[in-house]
């Protein structure tokens, strides 16, 4: 082959290259045009009536994702809201009004930007006549809590087992930075706790919404209110009390900062052993045990910090300072000196972990905020909804005596007893 012919062949090869590229582009475009269009099915169904004011706009999507939701009432006013993390529904930011008609318009977008829009119009129920289950959210707004603070919701009367999944689905917790957890019910349904596998990180913001107003709970009752609060987590403080030594050890960020002599409950009225959380702090309060077993006294106390619903506190007890560090003489409380009690009030927060060990009786589930008194695996078993498989405790950092270790309950009605 001469040089002229070889050059001619090379030129033909170069000229053919753009044609090959153009053919591949045309094939991809044709495949995109054949993709099925996006579609969405909505709930409540169109023209549905007697819908609870707790209703969400359910969105079952194929071949796309929800790109917009617009919910308006019968006066044209738009309702705010946001989607669930799993995209299964769109949740209004507050309960809907009774006896009103709403229209939801949902747009979904598929591959290539193709869209589809669907509407549903429904009417809410009139004001219910069924009695309510009263809910209490033990998580106030604009507070600073300890790193063991569980979000606690209590119910009166208790939530029946078959209704707990529906209730739990309407309990929302957001953390910033993200630190996912789960809810766990007491066996009797009187309380439900939320926590992560590990302590909250200091500085975390926690936003809670118990969106229960108008929610059907079982066959006979309704939810009572829509409650919400946002607070933050403060410094890490943990308190350990050892009955064997009659000493309290106070840790901050895992480091021992103080030891304090204590006197715990005498054998006839023993203190509980277990992992508790500081629930309340009172500069001054009154213990009135008249009518209670082994009670019958009324006494004013200073610097009292509640640990259980049954009336166990850490508090100032100048009358037992000679026994502190040596002998148990209280009615179940942790007695400390007036000076130590004042220091504790300055250095602890509601939500700090308090661990008591070595006494005659174990802490009863639900006698206080007992979310940390079980391992994470045991805690997760109490959820009425599936817990994500990946939600597991992280390997523990440097352990300290205040770190976490791995039935029916009394009603959460505070007792003023102590001692």
Automatic annotation (TrEMBL):
UniProt xrefs under Pfam families: Big_10, YkuD
Top-level taxonomic group: Bacteria
Chain intervals with Basic and acidic residues compositional bias: 71-87
Pathway: Cell wall biogenesis; peptidoglycan biosynthesis
Residue span of region Disordered: 28-54, 70-98, 385-419
Active site: 315 (proton donor/acceptor), 333 (nucleophile)
Domain L,D-TPase catalytic: 237-357
Transmembrane feature ranges: none
Biased composition (Low complexity): 401-419
Keywords: Acyltransferase, Cell shape, Cell wall biogenesis/degradation, Peptidoglycan synthesis, Transferase
UniProt cross-references to Gene3D superfamilies, sorted A to Z: 2.60.40.3710, 2.60.40.3780, L,D-transpeptidase catalytic domain-like
PROSITE patterns according to UniProt: LD_TPASE, PROKAR_LIPOPROTEIN
Protein name, entry field: Ig-like domain-containing protein
Organism for this UniProt entry: Micromonospora rubida
